Prior knowledge:
This protein is an alpha/beta fold. It has helices at residues 6-14, 154-162, 201-212, 226-234, 256-262, 297-315, 368-373, and strands spanning 22-26, 39-40, 50-51, 55-58, 68-76, 90-94, 106-109, 113-115, 119-122, 132-133, 144-146, 167-171, 175-181, 185-186, 197-198, 215-222, 241-245, 266-270, 274-275, 281-285, 288-293, 326-330, 341-351, 354-359, 376-380, 392-397.
Amino acid sequence: xxxxxxxxxxxxxxxxxxxxxxxxxxxxxxxxxxxxxxxxxxxxxxxxxxxxxxxxxxxxxxxxxxxxxxxxxxxxxxxxxxxxxxxxxxxxxxxxxxxxxxxxxxxxxxxxxxxxxxxxxxxxxxxxxxxxxxxxxxxxxxxxxxxxxxxxxxxxxxxxxxxxxxxxxxxxxxxxxxxxxxxxxxxxxxxxxxxxxxxxxxxxxxxxxxxxxxxxxxxxxxxxxxxxxxxxxxxxxxxxxxxxxxxxxxxxxxxxxxxxxxxxxxxxxxxxxxxxxxxxxxxxxxxxxxxxxxxxxxxxxxxxxxxxxxxxxxxxxxxxxxxxxxxxxxxxxxxxxxxxxxxxxxxxxxxxxxxxxxxxxxxxxxxxxxxxxxxxxxxxxxxxxxxxxxxxxxxxxx
Length: 398
Ligand SMILES: Nc1nc2c(c(=O)[nH]1)N[C@H]1C(S)=C(S)[C@@H](COP(=O)(O)OP(=O)(O)OC[C@H]3O[C@@H](n4cnc5c(N)ncnc54)[C@H](O)[C@@H]3O)O[C@H]1N2
Ligand code: MOO
């Protein structure tokens, strides 16, 4: 069977995937969530002409011939506007954020004034409107300022609050059930027998899911047993994505594909032209999407970035784009590539304005230590020619 190109596999995985439904979330809990609808301002900000400095609210015409002495008629502070109207020759003490008193048009900062007894002396003139924030300077009621799909970071949350939204419609977090498979696996912290290892892929993938805006549900470790894997898949009936780790290849103990098919999943693809990650598979049953990730830890996590993260993005209403690549120069010679798109773990140095990516000499897909200490992946197209140190390459930064 021909290996499916990486881009084709991602398109097949994302095809017809619908975003999760919207749910209301209080502002305090909305950090990191993704807006399901555009958000319009409930009010104008600032709602009134406001002083941007501490000083004196005046009429610019009155201080055109400064120095000149004005009569003090009151005070305006933030939250405490001046109720009256200021007439010719008069001034109001004003503080940052206070509404401009009726009749005034300019703020003279206190550094340029000398306070007297019931008077203030303007030491210099100011152009009309100086240090006045016009009503609506920031935004006007009805303006749509946050678009659907916006990830709610600190800036978006502060703006939503200023627009007077206490609750926001966000996409439900995509639920990703993660099932490890393999007789050789024990959970982290356990006591492996002589022929066992510690399961690591689930911990990494759960972190990836969380960072992408999803909710990871740990389905534990299933033995290499078709019935057991099938039964565990069934416990994830309400998941948006079932991620199966390991058992994706062609060995006698690799049951993932069969288990999925027996549970009613139709396969979109199996085996892709990628290293690491060749045995990747995807399928679906109704709205549930299954992703069979290779057992080799590096393959599992690299495929997580290239496939699971875009899938979560799509479920959150995004485009599901592949990770962005950047230009760099190679820090070592590379041999010609074969038919699989290669994702080489590499360190990154900065030489002047240029990034230099140096792939580790050994690229075995079991080597988590290299992966964890890599700064980037060097992406090599299928059949890329041999390349020498100093030649350009494309990288995905961690
Ligand atoms: N004859 C062939 N053999 C293999 C092929 C092939 O094309 N022909 N592909 C190889 C490639 S590439 C990969 S990747 C692996 C993936 O195989 P599986 O997805 O079936 O994974 P397993 O066999 O179950 O495990 C592989 C390896 O990874 C370890 N593992 C599994 N799960 C975990 C986990 N949750 N945490 C940590 N480590 C895990 C497992 O112990 C094995 O060492 O197949 C090649 N073989
Ligand atoms: O695709 Mo596998 O991950 O090379 O070992």
